[in-house]
Design a protein that fits this description.
The complex is a heterodimer. Chain A is mostly helical. Chain A has helices spanning 3-8, 13-29, 32-52, 64-68, 72-105, 108-114, 116-123, 126-137, 142-149, 163-187, 191-199, 204-232, 236-241, 249-258, 263-297. The chains are: A mainly alpha, B mainly alpha.
Chain lengths: 298, 274
């Protein structure tokens, strides 16, 4: 039943509108089973934990769990999470932007083939890739052995179970998350603008800097925000490649639950992580909008 | 060659040689770790070297003769296939239900269904562990399937919504006006038209469940340990090359699924379903 049908038959319009409403409700009901599952696994436990984080061990209302977050151990883990996430995002931009740029400039056919190099790691299990890095980077691992055989180093470099290994592994996991959306947004830039710039006498470097870079800033901002936020809550790679030396937010949450069974601390940490993530996403959205409108005016 | 213009900016291939080199290096960085594990897994020594000094199948043998590894592989397969069925059905129903509904609660419900893809896995892990401990679902296959289905639903919804976006609703209206019930119209007209999207959603759901580690780490143990959970424990405690053999098989599985997805899509675009 469409609106046009209703207009043509004013006599039973009320009946038809009721029919339409019922049908809509039935359609809506189709999403209910999926919704129930998300509620069971995600929404209910998380609200429950957020509620619990407001009480201390004796069951009295208190800010104890949140006050605990100000202890040096937790503050340091917040700071190191932010630093690691910022470093990984920056490296991903430096490595990913040129890749997305070149792919967007190549003929679609060639780009489709080369995209396999980005999609294959994207589809490969994060655990497998993290394990591969462990094998490559460890003390008697492939890279150290090669460097020694080449005579570049005499002692094995500590490449893993520390910050270095964590960052390498995280960059490997996050890079496709930056490249894929960035590539899509760069593809959407009309090459006519670049041709126009060249016609007006701009050198390739000038037309890139003054035309392409500003036009791709939006996609870059969105990709970088996604990467940063994914880094903030990332557990697997820091847990395996950090060797216990890289205290990330996520590993603190896991430890609070599995080592100390401290649900109050775990939920306060989770709420704090969620709030920070939300603020960053909101700020990025504002920044991107402002950037968009200033480009529109200019 | 060097004089040929490479793009709209009139730059030549020679001038941007550095860009080609840089991009090739980044792509090597992305792909080599995924593939190097395959030759390493055929090494005959405890230390995985590249290139291996001697070749053997001992790590594959270690996997296929270990009851523990095989048991967890079977758990993973069972969970992943149940998840695939459940997530595909629930996800397809939800995207169909949300497809026509534009105003009101529609976007909110869609947003909520997308959440499992966006929130950190560690949240889902401790949340599920917490609520399961009250429901007695920890260390059960049911618990694993429900959690993995929650994680897989967003991927199915994205795939199926894509299919529905290019589906002409008038076809279904025609079936309805000819007297087909809503269910029948959906099953005989709509579903065949969006089947390619549903199949790619299924593939996503399978891989999501089969590769999932963080949630399984918390809600499964002992006899219900998934393959990835056992691998995680193994990697953290000792570097046992059996994991290299399993990893190689997982990489090959990903490649096969990726090719299947491409194949299905090409087949679909030939048949007119985008």
């Amino acid at each position: 039943m469409t609106a046009a049908d209703i207009d043509q038959q004013p006599l039973n319009a009320g009946l038809l509108a009721g029919d339409e409403r019922r049908q809509r409700a039935a359609m809506f009901g189709l999403s209910l089973p999926a919704m129930l599952l998300v509620a069971l696994v995600l929404l209910v436990p998380f609200s429950w934990l957020a509620w619990l984080s407001l009480f201390d061990a004796s069951g009295a209302l208190s800010s104890e769990n949140y006050a605990r977050l100000l202890r040096p151990a937790y503050v340091n883990s917040f700071l190191s999470t932010l630093q690691v996430s910022a470093a990984v995002t920056a490296i991903c931009i430096l490595l990913g932007y040129p890749v997305a740029y070149l792919l967007s400039q190549l003929p679609q056919r060639v780009a489709q083939v080369l995209l396999v190099f980005i999609i294959l790691p994207f589809w490969t299990s994060v655990l497998v890739r993290t394990y591969a890095w462990l094998v490559l980077l460890q003390r008697e691992g492939v890279i150290n052995t090669w460097l020694k055989q080449l005579g570049l180093i005499s002692e094995s470099l500590p490449l893993v179970n520390n910050l270095t290994g964590t960052i390498i592994g995280m960059v490997h996991v996050m890079l496709p998350f930056l490249i894929l959306p960035l590539y899509a947004s760069m593809r959407a830039i009309d090459p006519v603008y670049l041709r126009a710039a060249a016609n007006c006498g701009a050198s390739p470097a000038q037309s890139f800097r003054q035309v392409f870079l500003p036009l791709s800033a939006r996609g870059l901002g969105a990709g970088a925000a996604l990467t940063f936020v994914l880094c903030l809550g990332f557990y697997l790679t820091p847990a395996l490649l950090g060797g216990g030396r890289v205290a990330m937010w996520s590993t603190q949450i896991a430890d609070a639950v599995s080592k100390f069974a401290n649900w109050g601390a775990a939920s306060a940490l989770s709420v704090a992580l969620l709030v920070v993530t939300g603020i960053i996403l909101w700020a990025m959205k504002l920044a991107v909008r402002r950037l968009g409108s200033s480009l529109g005016e200019g | 060659m060097a004089g040929r213009v490479a793009s709209s900016t009139q730059i030549t291939h020679g001038q941007r040689l550095w860009l080609y080199v840089l991009v090739a290096l980044v792509m090597a960085f992305l792909v080599i770790p995924c593939l190097i594990i395959i030759p390493l897994s055929f090494s005959d020594s405890q230390y995985l070297e590249f290139p291996p000094r001697g070749w053997s199948l001992r790590w594959y043998e270690a996997f296929f003769t270990s009851d523990e590894w095989l048991r967890s592989a079977i758990v993973s397969l069972k969970v992943a296939s149940s998840t695939t069925v459940l997530a595909t059905v629930l996800g397809t129903l939800a995207s169909y239900g949300l497809h026509k509904k534009t105003g009101g609660l529609g976007p909110v419900v869609r947003g909520a269904l997308m959440l499992p893809m966006m929130v950190p896995l560690i949240f889902v892990a401790i949340g599920a562990f917490f609520v399961y401990s009250r429901l007695g679902l920890n260390n059960t296959l049911t618990g694993l399937v429900l959690a993995h289905t929650t994680l897989a639903i967003p991927f199915v919804i994205i795939a199926v919504s894509n299919g529905l976006a290019s589906f002409d609703v008038n076809l279904e209206r025609a079936a309805r006006s000819l007297g087909a019930s809503p269910v029948r119209a959906f099953l005989t007209v709509t579903l065949p038209q969006i089947r390619i999207s549903v199949i790619s959603g299924m593939l996503f759901a399978f891989i999501t469940s089969f590769d999932e580690v963080v949630v399984s780490l918390f809600i499964s143990s002992g006899a219900t340990s998934t393959l990835t959970k056992r691998m995680f424990a193994n990697i953290r405690d000792q570097v046992d090359p059996t994991v290299a053999a399993i990893s190689s098989m997982l990489v090959v599985l990903s490649i096969v699924v990726l090719i299947a997805a491409q194949f299905v899509r090409r087949d679909g675009s030939a048949a007119g379903d985008r």
